[in-house]
Design a protein that fits this description.
This protein has 13 helices and 14 strands. With 323 residues, the chain is of the alpha/beta class.
């Protein structure tokens, strides 16, 4: 057995995608743009990439979002998005949100951000939700517009990231409506299904096609939103790891649980890597499998309020009503 350090494999996927920033020369109007922005009212924002608070527009109108900042803003109509990056965060959007994001001008993927493309969009603010572990260099982007970074150290910090990104983009009020809806729906599920929730210990399982499988504990990518609905998971380990990467021979670990959640596509079918684990010999002998308590759940791994609400619906329909 090898214990995966935080971040989890899915969490770290973006870190491995491409560690090269596309440092295209930023020319053609950026200086004039900067002069215009100097006249606009500004305010301080505590950004995770700077030792001192940065000055950002008080009322930004043209926002470029990279990393998980995209998920925080894509469904907020007044967010003023003029460009987005793609990458690991795509798994955290609903199909409708992903389609909307793909229709916006694209500025890169994961760590490969096309600085020249960002400059062409003439943003007055760039917001980033890239995880802290990526250690991204924002200096080239800062030549274009103020940069506001809310970097997560672990998946369970997604709420704080969403709140700070919405605040930076000037849409905190609109975003708070999503938070209220999310909290109300979570409380509704906790109350309506309190009986089965108190009697059921869940495991969240993921896989990445490397011959192993991942067991997610409390605070992991796939458990943080379900936990808000009252689903119980095993706690993080003493060393702070919220997931474990295990060989197929250790699928018997799932015998410790009453039910298993797995990643699924939009149609509710297990993802390819998860299906490979399911097709292995040991899987069929696991107690939750023999008890028909394995549930493939679309949107598992949500880390925004909109996808969280979608996941709540999936959990109720595919899991809670079936227990």
């Amino acid at each position: 057995m090898r214990r995966s350090p935080a971040p989890s494999p899915r969490w770290a996927a973006g870190l491995l995608a491409a560690a090269v920033l596309a440092l295209s020369a930023c020319t053609g109007g950026t200086a004039g743009q900067g002069q215009e922005e100097q006249a606009a009212p500004t305010r301080e924002f505590t950004s995770d990439h700077a030792e001192q608070p940065v000055q950002i527009p008080r009322d930004p109108r043209r926002v470029v979002a990279i990393g998980w900042a995209v998920t925080a803003l894509i469904s907020v109509e007044d967010a003023g998005l003029v460009g987005v990056s793609s990458g690991t965060q795509d798994t955290g959007m609903t199909p409708e949100e992903l389609e909307k994001a793909q229709k916006l001008p694209q500025v890169g993927r994961d760590l490969e951000i096309n600085v020249e493309k960002v400059a062409e969009l003439r943003p007055d603010l760039i917001v980033s939700g890239l995880p802290a572990a990526m250690e991204f260099d924002y200096s080239e982007l800062e030549r274009i517009a103020p940069v506001a970074v809310a970097a997560m150290n672990r998946p369970s910090e997604w709420k704080d990231m969403n709140r700070r990104i919405a605040d930076a983009a000037g849409v905190a009020d609109a975003h708070s409506e999503l938070i209220e809806e999310y909290d109300a729906r979570a409380a509704e599920l906790q109350e309506e299904y309190s009986g089965v929730l108190s009697d059921t210990l869940f495991a969240s399982v993921d896989a990445y096609g490397d011959g192993n499988w991942t067991l997610e504990h409390q605070g992991a990518h796939g458990t943080t939103v379900p936990a808000d609905a009252g689903l119980r998971f095993t706690p993080e380990s003493d060393d702070g790891a919220f997931s474990e990467s295990l060989p197929l021979e250790r699928l018997d670990r799932l015998d410790e649980y009453d039910a298993v959640l797995t990643r699924a596509d939009a149609q509710g079918e297990p993802t390819g890597p998860v299906q490979e684990v399911m097709d292995s010999g040991p899987w069929k002998e696991v107690e939750p499998v023999r008890n028909d308590r394995v549930y493939a759940v679309p949107q598992l791994g949500a880390m925004s309020y909109t996808t969280g609400l979608a996941l709540f619906d999936q959990l109720e329909e595919r899991v809670l009503q079936e227990l």
